[in-house]
Amino acid sequence: QVQLVESGGGLVQAGGSLRLSCAASGSIFSIISMGWYRQAPGKQRELVATITNGLSTVYADSVKGRFAISRDNAKNTVYLQMNSLKPEDGAVYYCNADGIDMKRIMFHTWGQGTQVTVSS
Predict the structure, then answer these.
(1) Which of 14, 36, 76, 86 would you call most buried, defined as having the most Cβ atoms within 10 angstroms of its Cβ?
(2) What is the pLDDT of residues 46-72, one digit of tens each?
(3) Is 40 exposed, middle or buried (0-12, 13-18, 19+ CB in 10 A)?
(4) Is 17 in contact with 81 (CB distance < 8 Å)?
(5) CA dist., res. 30 & res. 101, Å (int)
């Protein structure tokens, strides 16, 4: 099994910054892609940013220029640096990983989520 543990959420004022981290552990052969999604109350979960093991990135239009995703392949860890935060960025942020485990079976795993609250 593969587990994801997120950290770094919290309360911040508008215009502030936060850095989220997500570490993967368990029976991992290779992680192909890691990413961050978010879900605000009453809304669907949406993509924030993803990064492949080749470091290709995709961002939601709403966060381009403000958020930066990065990855440490050696540590199986993904980061999300969030700058110039807005109240509408407040949500539960979920980490996601797609890869192959040691049994050569593909996995698609979610973290438990971390709350980000941005006060105006």
Answers:
(1) 36
(2) 999 999 998 999 999 999 999 999 999
(3) middle
(4) yes
(5) 7
- What is the per-residue pLDDT for 89? 98
Distance CA 105, CA 114 (A): 27
SS percent in the chain: helix, strand, coil, step 5:
10, 60, 30
Q: Which residue has the tokens 């004022």?
A: 13
Other Cβ atoms less than 10 A from the Cβ of 70: the count is 14
Both tokens of 13, joined, read 């004022």
Q: What is the mean pLDDT of each run of 10 residues along the chain (120 residues)?
A: 95 98 97 97 97 95 98 96 98 98 97 97
